[in-house]
Amino acid sequence: MKRLFPILSVITAGLLAYALxxxxxxxxxxxxxxxxxxxxxxxxxxxxxxxxxFLINFVASIVYLFRRSQKADMVALVCAEVGVxxxxxxxxxxxxxxxxxxxxxxxxxxxxLTSTLVLWLIYxxxxxxxxxxxxxxxQMLAAALAVFGALDMPLVYFSIWFFRTQHxxxxxxxGSMDPRxxxxxxxxxxxxxxxxxxxxxxxxxxxVLQREVEQAHAMESLxxxxxxxxxSMPLTRGAK
Amino acid sequence: xTTQTFLFHYGQYVAYIATWLIHGFYxxxxxxxxxxxxxxxxxxxxxx
Lengths: 240, 48
Prior knowledge:
The structure holds two protein chains of two kinds. Chain A is mostly helical. Chain A has helices at 4-26, 40-67, 70-102, 111-132, 138-149, 152-162, 179-224. Chain A has one domain (19-207). In chain A, 73% of the residues lie in helices and 0% in strands. In chain A, helix 4 runs antiparallel to helix 6 (152-162). Chain A is globular and about 75 Å long. Chain B has one domain.
């Protein structure tokens, strides 16, 4: 496993470099928007990756609520955190494209933009809850928040189908896209997926390490207090 | 050159830099947290 991570890192770096070359050099220039349209090669794959991570967070949260599995809880936390990073990329690159094309940075009241911002805020709230709440119920509350928060995802995705919005129509299934552009977009998504997987892996290892530190601290406190028996339950962040 | 014109010509590069600044910042946070957790674990092991 230790060797696999550097190998995957090299493959991902190669894929990201190839995707960048395709996005900035090979993909044809858009007839109407010029070269600024190339932002979709980071914006759209980041959005898809964020959605996928939030979906995994949703499934892991349900698993945690039913089984109280610590692994499911860690997967949910990791996916929410990395998903927020990708969603931040979406919210930053979108206005960079909108300013020259629409003439405005942000369309207030646009349901696609607003629901995406709300989605980001929900998962930021999730992370704030995880980080600052010391209650024993934190994991359960966070899982419940994640389940309800996931309800915003279909709204974000389908908003451009069902509502009048300034946001462009979906890339796949919503319009005609040059096959070379679609090819570049899919390569970019593959590169971003590999990158997200690596980051999630590293973040999962960090979470395991942090829980080991917390458990060691708790054991030290117990030993200091004269308690010699091992705790009957695994010590978690909420049980400090 | 206005912001709009600048972004029309160079927006793809600006977005690319912004994307990797965000990811780089997050990777920096992860590395910092890794080193802190390892240091704490080592200190706890030394204290035993």
